[in-house]
Amino acid sequence: MAFTGTQLRSRVTQDNTLELSLIEVTLPDPEPDEVIVQVEATPINPSDLFLLLGPADISTARVSGTPESPVLTADIPAKMMRMVAGRLGQSLPVGNEGAGVVVAAGSSDAAQALMGKTVGIAGGEMYAQYRCMKAYMCMEIPAGTSAAEGASCFVNPMTSLAMVETMRAEGHTALVHTAAASNLGQMLNRICIEDGIELVNIVRKPEQEEILRNLGAKYVCNSTSDTFLKDLTAALIETGATLAFDATGGGKLASSILSCMETAAVQSMTEYNRYGSDVYKQVYVYGLLDRSPTTLSINYGFEWGIGGWLLTPFLQKAGMTKMIEMRTRIAAGLKTTFASHYTREISLAETLSLQAVAVYSKQATGEKFLIRPQL
Amino acid sequence: MAFTGTQLRSRVTQDNTLELSLIEVTLPDPEPDEVIVQVEATPINPSDLFLLLGPADISTARVSGTPESPVLTADIPAKMMRMVAGRLGQSLPVGNEGAGVVVAAGSSDAAQALMGKTVGIAGGEMYAQYRCMKAYMCMEIPAGTSAAEGASCFVNPMTSLAMVETMRAEGHTALVHTAAASNLGQMLNRICIEDGIELVNIVRKPEQEEILRNLGAKYVCNSTSDTFLKDLTAALIETGATLAFDATGGGKLASSILSCMETAAVQSMTEYNRYGSDVYKQVYVYGLLDRSPTTLSINYGFEWGIGGWLLTPFLQKAGMTKMIEMRTRIAAGLKTTFASHYTREISLAETLSLQAVAVYSKQATGEKFLIRPQL
């Protein structure tokens, strides 16, 4: 029996247009080590948006086609086309992660063992009704936990755990996190509390401070406050944090963090050093919520670094044993430490509606959509 | 017999003033493992200037005192005083490196063996007529090589060798260097030619291009040229360089280098990756010739890093064996690979003259002063 279902596709065309559409896909029979998952729930993460929407100007979006098979198009500013030169004309499937039920399995024991089980998977192409997957890539979701609860079992849980692992591997002992009231940020708070790690949270709004304090966060600094640099420096002196993960990328925030880290480090120096402190300070940029240029005012000596950071290279370096250890911890904590919260559930067709795209394209902290492909 | 001689001192006072002066210092007798070096030649390196002049506004400099004992003072802009808060009121000796003759030695064999020899030393406080030093810190300069030829035996040679060592240690295979026509840059060119390493030189003026081409440099890009980004990308594709050492720090250059490296890396990719190439690209900032803010336009994926880089932490990590290996290579090449060129020789008193400070404070490429403390 072959499985046929709807799949969302994103395409960028030569005439500076992004086009989202739904197509029908028939899956081949699974290989011995594969399973077919009926996708029940798949989230729209910030990390999905670049492939889904590219650099399109969403204010120009319009919908054509039929209600069952809508087509959303939007203009891409000409100067942004360089960013998507590598995908011109290609019809690309989208969706990093999700969860569903195994409805067919290959002949291997590993695949057969998953038959009828609810599994979480990551591997792209999840905005679809069916997904064929290697059995070993499936995370079995414990009985009593729903597909919706398991849908975000990979990106945010793995990323927040990987931040803590990176901290340990690189010799730091406490963390700074920006855009800290996000789903990911809340998860990181719960992990740090569980593991006894000091975490300095940076947010932009009083209500975000509130969310984190209610979660038990001890250090919350508001970057729009007049006393931000003073508050941050005080928190850095108390925690000794010398590693930050920054979701914003643009603007002056990364540089301010390094500057306050240096001020904190210099406080404990007894002798003047013209080259600054000998305390190494690192900011990893893992998102670009702020697309304006990043400005560094290098007044923090020579012991500093800023760099890109992404989950995939981390996992490649970490190896399979560490990854299984992380996956086991996540599976056990899907309803607690690694729980995600959604503000809306939508169908695949609704994902292409003007109303929905206007909201999820903004990546507003607190807003998170869950796609239900079987609706 | 006690040695008494002149020493240059730099002091920053509460009233926003920098003060350079000469004092008489009498050295204690050397300990068993120490020698006393009569300093014959000591260069003014860019790395000396921050301690020597701090952030003083040299256009405000004036000289008082006597011709034999001049005092140079200059104003420090109020907003810069924060940078020198750690040294307020302290009278600091200056001068990273130099060479001279051992005129007294402690009782140990190692110290006695150096008696009468010409040695190169690094360890600060070299802008002086005499310097007491541990014997093991002295690099014996081969017969036939003068103190003037050995004066720059440490900072530039060690730094340029350390750049190549860093390249190897971090898995890169070719280099980019900015402000590349400097004494250091010329040295790096000679090392890279000797070692068969491809080096992409970035300069700002046609005459600097000329200097490097005459040295045999294959890749020289002028950052003020209209075709700079194209030229740089072409050189990066040919060389595969993914590591740059940047002496300028400020402005857009570091970001442009990363951007061109990414363009070069993407050229060899067969499949579109929304996160950019998986080629890791690094810029190390080792100087701040351009004090304007550093601006990053992050369009090079997530596999990138920018960071401070300094010789001292490199040497601490490299260990004594590596350092001796580097020192041996330097001693053998002081007249060739590691030769420095000076545009002027001045006395300690002249170092405090308005005429001299106006020139050496500018750190112009090609200008390099040698202090002769015995004049």
Helix content of chain A: 25-40%
Give the strand tally of chain A: 20
Round the Cα radius of gyration of chain A to an integer and report it. Answer: 22 Å
Low-confidence stretches of chain A: none
How large is the share of residues in beta strands of chain A? 25-35%
Query: Mean pLDDT of chain A, nearest integer?
Result: 94
- Derived structural class of chain A: alpha/beta
Oligomer: homodimer
Secondary structure blueprint with pairings:
Two copies of one chain form a homodimer.
Chain A: E1 4-13, E2 17-26, E3 34-44, H1 46-53, E4 57-65, E5 70-75, E6 92-93, E7 97-105, H2 109-112, E8 118-122, E9 130-134, E10 139-140, H3 147-150, H4 155-169, E11 174-178, H5 183-195, E12 198-203, H6 206-214, E13 219-222, H7 228-239, E14 243-246, E15 249-251, H8 253-266, E16 281-285, E17 290-296, E18 304-308, H9 311-318, H10 320-332, E19 344-346, H11 348-351, H12 354-360, E20 369-371
Helix pairs in contact in A: 4-5, 7-8
Q: How would you describe the overall organization of this protein?
A:
Two copies of one chain form a homodimer. Chain A has 375 residues and is of the alpha/beta class. The first copy, chain A, is built from twelve helices and 20 strands. Chain A has helices spanning 46-53, 109-112, 147-150, 155-169, 183-195, 206-214, 228-239, 253-266, 311-318, 320-332, 348-351, 354-360, and strands spanning 4-13, 17-26, 34-44, 57-65, 70-75, 92-93, 97-105, 118-122, 130-134, 139-140, 174-178, 198-203, 219-222, 243-246, 249-251, 281-285, 290-296, 304-308, 344-346, 369-371. In chain A, strands 3, 7, 8, 9, 10, 19 and 20 form a seven-stranded mixed sheet that branches. In chain A, helix 5 (183-195) links the parallel strand 11 (174-178) and strand 12 (198-203). The radius of gyration of chain A is 22 Å and the shape is globular. The first copy, chain A, starts with a strand and ends with a strand. The relative contact order of chain A is 0.15. The mean pLDDT of chain A is 94. The A-B interface holds A 50-51, 83, 86-87, 90, 92, 249-250, 266, 269, 272-275, 278, 285-286, 288, 293-310, 312-313 and B 50-51, 83, 86-87, 90, 92, 249-250, 266, 269, 272-275, 278, 285-286, 288, 293-310, 312-313. Strand 18 (304-308) of chain A pairs antiparallel with strand 18 of chain B, so a sheet runs across the interface.
